[in-house]
């Protein structure tokens, strides 16, 4: 039996330092995505980016919906201060995470601040409700029964009020569900359906009464149902 003289000698190749691994010549960049692709899939399911772009239109180079998606991904990873969002996206594959390739610098605090202003002007409750309805309609979630509750959020430091531009809710002392009466607070009220799926959310004054908030919300729901002929 004669040897194939055209076949490379693997022992010689190994001895010479040449690599026989075809992947060794490729430029491979590995990045950790953790749970973020799952969050991205849910955001796509709710049509988050396009809904925000439609309700809060802008002439900014970066679409508001992408900034909001970026904030959601960051928040569900531990939440960075706005001035650290650039660090969070440094080295990440934004095309996979956001659906569009963006430099990390797109998430500077100026851009994010402008988008937050746009959301406020468009109406955060309006945007939230539409996204909630996207989920309810797409997944057939029952709204037959609802659950309402409030949560107190403690804050530290001084919160001075600009009388010319009063805030939409007051940060002040109130009944603390966290047993921290020494701290100022505000309340978050949520109305949930199904398995704790929020369809309504609003910030309330820190000293607001659950009873009064509940009565106001029930009245709003009754008026809304009456407009559509629902008893």
Taken in chain order, the helices and strands follow as HHHHHHHHEEEH
Q: Give the tally of β-strands.
A: 3
Helix count equals 9
- Share of helical residues: 40-55%
User: By helix and strand content, what is the structural category?
Assistant: alpha+beta
Strand content: 5-15%
| Adjacency order of strands in the biggest sheet | 1-2-3
**Arithmetic mean pLDDT:** 85
Form type: globular
Largest pleated sheet: 3 strands, antiparallel
- Rg for CA atoms: 26 Å
- Stretches with pLDDT under 50, minimum 5 residues: none
Separation of the first and last Cα atoms: 94 Å
Overview of the structural elements:
This protein is an alpha+beta fold and 231 residues long. It is built from nine helices and three strands, in the order H-H-H-H-H-H-H-H-E-E-E-H. A three-stranded antiparallel beta sheet has the order 1-2-3. The longest helix has 18 residues, at 210-227.
């Amino acid at each position: 039996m004669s040897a194939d003289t055209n076949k490379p000698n693997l022992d010689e190749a190994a001895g010479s330092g040449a690599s026989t691994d075809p992947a060794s010549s490729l430029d491979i960049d590995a990045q950790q995505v953790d749970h973020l692709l799952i969050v991205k899939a849910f955001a796509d399911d709710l049509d988050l980016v396009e809904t925000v772009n439609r309700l809060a239109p802008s002439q900014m180079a970066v679409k508001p919906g992408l900034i909001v998606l970026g904030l959601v991904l960051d928040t569900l990873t531990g939440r960075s201060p706005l001035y650290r969002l650039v660090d969070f996206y440094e080295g990440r594959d934004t095309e996979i995470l956001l659906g569009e390739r963006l430099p990390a610098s797109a998430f500077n605090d100026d851009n994010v601040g402008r988008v937050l202003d746009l959301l406020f002007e468009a109406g955060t409750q309006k945007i939230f409700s539409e996204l909630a309805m996207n989920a309810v309609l797409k997944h057939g979630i029952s709204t037959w029964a609802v659950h309402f509750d409030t949560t107190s959020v403690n804050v530290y430091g001084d919160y001075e009020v600009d009388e010319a531009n009063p805030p939409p809710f007051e940060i002040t002392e109130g009944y603390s569900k966290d047993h921290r009466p020494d701290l100022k607070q505000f309340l978050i009220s949520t109305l949930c359906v199904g398995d704790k799926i929020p369809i309504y959310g609003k910030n309330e004054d820190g000293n607001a009464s659950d009873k009064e908030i509940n009565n106001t919300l029930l009245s709003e729901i009754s008026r809304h149902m009456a407009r559509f002929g629902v008893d």
